[in-house]
Amino acid sequence: MIPAPFTYLRVGSVQEALDALAEYGDDAKLLAGGHSLIPLMKYRLATPKVLIDISGIAELSGVTFEGDSLVIGAATRHAIVEHSPVVKEHCRLLAYTASLVGDPQVRNRGTIGGSVAHGDSASDLPVSLLAMDAQFTAQGRNGTRTIAAADFFVGFWQTALTPNEVLINIKVPLAKQRWSYQKFTIRSQDWATVSSAVYGNAVALGAMADIPIRARDVESALLQGADISQAALLADHNTSPSSDTRASSDYRRHLARVLTEDGLREALARN
Amino acid sequence: MSLVGARVLRKEDPRLLTGRATFVDDLLPANCTFAQFIVSEHAHADIRHIDISQALQIPGVLGVWTALDFRDYPDLPGGLPDLERPPLATGRVRWAGEPIAVVVAEDRYIAADAVAAVKIDYNVLPAVSTIRAALAPDAQLLFPQHGSNCLVTVPMLDDLDRAMEACDERAQLRVVNQRCAVVPIETMACLADWNIDGLTMWATFQAPHHLRNKVSAWLNIPQNQCRIITPNVGGGFGAKIVFAPEFFIMPLLSKWVGRPVKFSQSRTEAMLQMTHGRDQEHDLEVGFDRNGRIKALRMVVTQNLGAYADPTGLGLPVLTNWMAGGCYKIAKVQTAFRCVVTNTTPVAAYRGAGRPEATYAVERLVDLVARRTGIDPVEVRRRNFIEPQDFPYETHNKAVIYDSGNFPALMDECVRLLDYETERKRQEAFRNDSSKPLIGIGFSTWIEIAGFGPNGSLEGFGHLASWESTQIRIHPDGSATIFIGSAPHGQGTETIVSQIASDELGISFDRINIVYGDTGTVIQGIGTLGSRSTPMVGSATKVASQRLLERAKKIAGHLLEASEDDLVVADDSFSVRGTPGKKVGWADVALASFQPLRLPPELQAGTLEERLFHESPNFSYPSGAYGCVVEIDRRSGKVRVAKMVLIDDCGTVINPLLAEGQVHGGVAQGIAQALFEEMQYDPSTGQPITSNLIDYLIPSAPDLPNYIAGRVNTPCPNNPLGAKGIGESGAIGSPPAVVNAIVDALSHFGVEHIDMPVLPEKVWKVLSTATKGST
Fold first, then answer.
1. I need a labelling partner for B610 at 20 to 30 A (CA). Which of A77, A231, B652, B696 fits?
2. Could you tell me if B600 and B558 are in contact, meaning their C-beta atoms sit under 8 angstroms apart?
3. Which of A245, A254, A258 has its CB closest to that of B695?
4. How many domains does chain B divide into?
5. Structural domain of residue B558, as residue ranges?
6. Residue B72, SS3?
7. Is residue A2 part of a domain?
């Protein structure tokens, strides 16, 4: 329960973070809220030699507008996203999803960027951001690039971010869409056993594969005029849920159908 | 005004709630060093070689020790002859997490690095992690010299078949009482400082003198040079009366490095190294007539001991067998048990320790009888209850004589507060409405065994005796300090004992303080376990207070020139009955007690000190009726406890606030066992797969209902307080109420039993099978 030795660096700007990443390369890890990384380090499942703390970088924190997008700084704490009047007005799905992350202590420390960069399919925010087609801005030594949500999550705890990039912000569309986030847990405060986000005509699922995924068959069925209960039956198509102590793969498939149906109905009712 | 019976706020709260309480890990003496175990990564293996060379080269590492270094010391106390647990694994490891070596370093970080640097070469053996695997004909043996993984077998004393055959109906049931982790908030910790004056060890433990007796014997040092201090302790639930290796190893390490050594477990270490609870399988049979009257009951318990036979672990099935008949008048009860070792963490006492398992078995059986006869489960209970006039009631086991109780009154109150008829109507109305959850109603009427205990009862578990001690000291200013042999760790015993003493002595509550948990200051003690503190040390204090007061009255009478028989004591003073204004303060009486010139001739200075070892002629038998309403989501199978009614009979209630708190916590653990918790192992490798609080599902407040509590009071006839104890009741009575409610909700699908924990998927499987069957 004690991490392997490491060096701690606190940086004040994105440029300093990039310089540090360039210097230490694969030995370095970015630290924001620490709620995914620190537990892994305590188990020595992650053994970075250098921790670069970006949580004090002012430019990475806060909520702003840019065109028809809402821009959430990567180091913005969950509690800020949850309670921000701007997010609540323009992106209810995001504020609501943030309110279901962990417990109040976790939400006061954990950050949206840390959550998505960890790339855990059972986390809440990646699922909703995928449904919203969020855009992820990453900055490296050679400039910035934008990664679409559909391309961001690439494998178990793996994202499209390269080791020398810093996630700067996450952009979500301002367009008001019907929405829902359904999260099934066995006990009330937990990671999702399965989750389902609905945003407009998009449906995304958590804990149904290595990465959060879109329920494309549900989406197409709805576009073709299927009713909600029929469409929701397709929720587990092309999924590969795991079996563990909480739920078997079959049960997760069942939950995906149930949550998707509930989510579609709730979203419709909000229309 | 009497304090006994009042909702007095806890004396302990200010220091605990302001973060000023001291726990073992808060202590940091000068030159302190830190120890950590290197534990087995395999469930079952022979150790070929341990390479500590790299660890020793890390700067700040003071040493690494293995079993070889302890070869001159005996195995840990208790257990079975020739099958005892060594302080560190010797040659063979028997569970994943068993300590193999120990490192001491300048700080925790260096210690952790050293642990990672120790290399162990194993010859991995097949692991048996379940009772079934351990008893298979070709099973790998944990103790080859014993010839079997079954260490103990206690067969039926006679044949029950004739009684069973005479019954109209018979039903069989197999139930599993799953393994639970104990999970106290404070994990195991100890700080040993062995210097020229002897050994002082601060330890998180429920029975400091018990530990002192065993550690001093193990180290072969005099007891007066072995001081155990248990400061504030953050929960124990039975796992902190176990002789864990750290309590024996850390003193020696302190001696060897010549500095204090501290050991403190992480949560994951605690999940693997602290003993677990429950883990029994029951084969049950019940014989009954068509009117639901139970005539015969058979219980065969198989106890999973884990990797070693802990002395309290061996006691669990004994207690389960004792309590097999529950609160029912059953003509013939026959029991048997056997104890099996497996490649898992050793099993020992956990809140209730054998009684929750018995209660669960008999309460499931009673519901099965109700089902088979078509008679309401409340009515079946009423037809079989031991009646109030039947006490004292001799059970099938001569060690167990129920002293008091009123089960019909408990049942009536439970039914009333549950609003039973309304809930049955709601159940009926919802059953055929697919938009509504399935409703289930379950009961558990139970009796347990507490107040451990009569002479001889704790000796079997290795204790010195079964009494409990109190020592009251009046200071010259009339304030009082009471030294108690109990070692509370969250129960609020300081408050309880102060209330009792205040009522008896007439000294105000705030001028009494309680000292415990230190073998250097408390004369002798047994400890806090088996729901014994209030009936035992509370009774001791009541009687000792009365004896001390007799002498105080002699002094007061002498000072007032009044007959001691005319004195009344209250509000820190003695006054003469019928003569207003003629009074003397406790402070002056106390002062006089140290001034020979002011004492009556028959008394000597220092007379206001009283000690008493309270012995009890019997156990106490708390009882209750719990009712539960569950709502089951038809699509996910998720169970929600919608209503929980708790009627307790713990005899005299000293403090209703604390009694409720004990029940609330116990019921939380009971609901947790019913719905969430199970310590699981990979069946092929024996690796634990629920060894942290991510995977091991302890619930939190939002997962639990508001409790509706009521009370029936039949005083305990075996102690002067009439108190029965209540520490374990909630955990004993609640699991069957919840499971009975779930089975009731699913009864129309033909479900007669479902094993704990009732996770949503289990219910979903029932529901999906049933739905397929009907369409």
1. B652
2. yes
3. A245
4. 3
5. 467-614
6. coil
7. no
